[in-house]
C-alpha cells in the first residue's frame, strides 16, 4: 500500500515540476509569451491519457518494487551479510 501511494505521489510531484520546468525554459530562456504558453499547455495535456495513465503506471510500479523488496527480505539469511546479499547482484560483487 505504501509503495503504491508513494510512487503515485512522486509521479504527481514530478509532473508538476516538469510543467513548471517547461515554463521556465520556454518563457524565460526561449522568450515565449506566457499568455500563449499556459493555454497551449492546457490544450495539449489530456487528463485520461497523460495524468490518469501516468498515475496507474506509477502505482503498478510501486506495487512491483514493494513486492520484490518484500520477497527478497523474506528469503534472505538473517545476518548482516544475508540482508545485504539480495541488494547486490552477482555482477556487482567484487572478485
Automatic annotation (TrEMBL):
Pfam families: MlaE. It comes from Neisseria gonorrhoeae. The lineage of its organism: Bacteria, Pseudomonadati, Pseudomonadota, Betaproteobacteria, Neisseriales. The gene is mlaE_1. Keywords: Membrane, Transmembrane, Transmembrane helix. Coiled coil: none annotated. The chain crosses the membrane at residues 6-32. InterPro entries: Permease_MalE. One of its GO terms (molecular function) is phospholipid transporter activity. The keyword Transmembrane helix applies. PANTHER family: ABC TRANSPORTER PERMEASE PROTEIN-RELATED, PROTEIN TRIGALACTOSYLDIACYLGLYCEROL 1, CHLOROPLASTIC. This is ABC transporter inner membrane protein. GO terms for cellular component: ATP-binding cassette (ABC) transporter complex.
Amino acid at each position: 500500500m505504501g509503495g503504491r501511494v508513494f510512487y503515485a505521489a512522486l509521479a504527481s510531484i514530478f509532473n508538476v515540476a516538469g510543467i513548471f520546468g517547461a515554463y521556465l525554459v520556454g518563457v524565460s530562456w526561449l522568450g515565449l509569451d506566457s499568455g500563449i504558453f499556459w493555454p497551449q499547455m492546457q490544450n495539449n495535456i489530456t487528463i485520461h491519457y497523460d495524468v490518469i495513465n501516468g498515475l496507474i503506471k506509477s502505482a503498478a510500479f510501486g506495487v512491483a518494487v514493494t513486492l520484490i523488496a518484500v520477497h527478497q527480505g523474506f528469503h534472505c539469511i538473517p545476518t548482516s551479510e544475508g540482508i545485504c546479499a539480495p541488494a547486490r547482484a552477482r555482477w556487482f560483487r567484487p572478485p
